[in-house]
Amino acid sequence: MDLSLIPQIKHTDSNNFFLLAGPCAIEGEDMALRIAEHVVTITSDLKIPYVFKGSFKKANRSRLDSFTGIGDEKALRILRKVSETFQVPTVTDIHTEQDAVMAAEYVDVLQIPAFLARQTDLVVAAANTGKTVNIKKGQFMSPESMKHAVNKVTETGNQQAIITDRGTMFGYQDMIVDFRGVPTMKQFAPVVLDVTHSLQQPNQSSGVTGGRPSLIGTMARAGIAAGVDGLFIETHFDCANAKSDGANMLDLGLMKKLLTDLTAIRKTINGLQ
């Protein structure tokens, strides 16, 4: 996989980690542009290759009354506006083969949710668009098994595959990241650590997913030290009132300090190699 082939991505020669970051869900145009502008400014200063992340719809919800989106086309148009306004690539989740075709008209990277990482038709449909495909490792899948998920992309002729680890289910309400899997999965594709989702606490009795955002810094630093190629971080300027995953997102105001620290760690790691 060649990171530089993602349209509009910058700083690919900086030897820094790359970043997929943004809100869990697109709630509106103003919020998306506000978050993107903040992260673009930071990543430009630190020379971090950046892809703006936002889900155009949320299909994996605990309760029927949970927020799912503002409308597919409306949200996708906002993702396109973010890309055009700030000259950055964008990534969004897809859930069906039809989503793959539709979203590919608006974004640069298609993301396969962890629950759907084994859905062959979905992965192949994403690959066939020619877009970069980011496959989240299922919470129930071994690092070794991700070879087959990546092969579903590459065997279509699309070499642009990424693996994102968002932890493995431990009991019913905790996710554990096994960093032993990083070098294993790097044999198949670049590896991203999903920092914020790996700190989720799903399956709460309320039907609202919990989280441990106080550990975001710890998890991100460990990921960089373990040699991941990129980080995935969901962020919001008002986490308490975010419409999805507010309990485990990073407060936008903390992003600059975190990314500055992580860049310094990455430089140290680079010097040891």
From TrEMBL:
<dbReference type="InterPro" id="IPR006218">
    <property type="entry name" value="DAHP1/KDSA"/>
</dbReference>
<keyword id="KW-0808">Transferase</keyword>
<protein>
    <recommendedName>
        <fullName>3-deoxy-8-phosphooctulonate synthase</fullName>
        <ecNumber>2.5.1.55</ecNumber>
    </recommendedName>
</protein>
<dbReference type="InterPro" id="IPR013785">
    <property type="entry name" value="Aldolase_TIM"/>
</dbReference>
<comment type="pathway">
    <text>Carbohydrate biosynthesis; 3-deoxy-D-manno-octulosonate biosynthesis; 3-deoxy-D-manno-octulosonate from D-ribulose 5-phosphate: step 2/3.</text>
</comment>
<keyword id="KW-0963">Cytoplasm</keyword>
<comment type="pathway">
    <text>Bacterial outer membrane biogenesis; lipopolysaccharide biosynthesis.</text>
</comment>
<dbReference type="GO" id="GO:0009103">
    <property type="term" value="P:lipopolysaccharide biosynthetic process"/>
</dbReference>
<dbReference type="GO" id="GO:0008676">
    <property type="term" value="F:3-deoxy-8-phosphooctulonate synthase activity"/>
</dbReference>
<dbReference type="GO" id="GO:0005737">
    <property type="term" value="C:cytoplasm"/>
</dbReference>
<feature type="domain" description="DAHP synthetase I/KDSA">
    <location>
        <begin position="8"/>
        <end position="259"/>
    </location>
</feature>
<dbReference type="Pfam" id="PF00793">
    <property type="entry name" value="DAHP_synth_1"/>
</dbReference>
<dbReference type="InterPro" id="IPR006269">
    <property type="entry name" value="KDO8P_synthase"/>
</dbReference>
<comment type="similarity">
    <text>Belongs to the KdsA family.</text>
</comment>
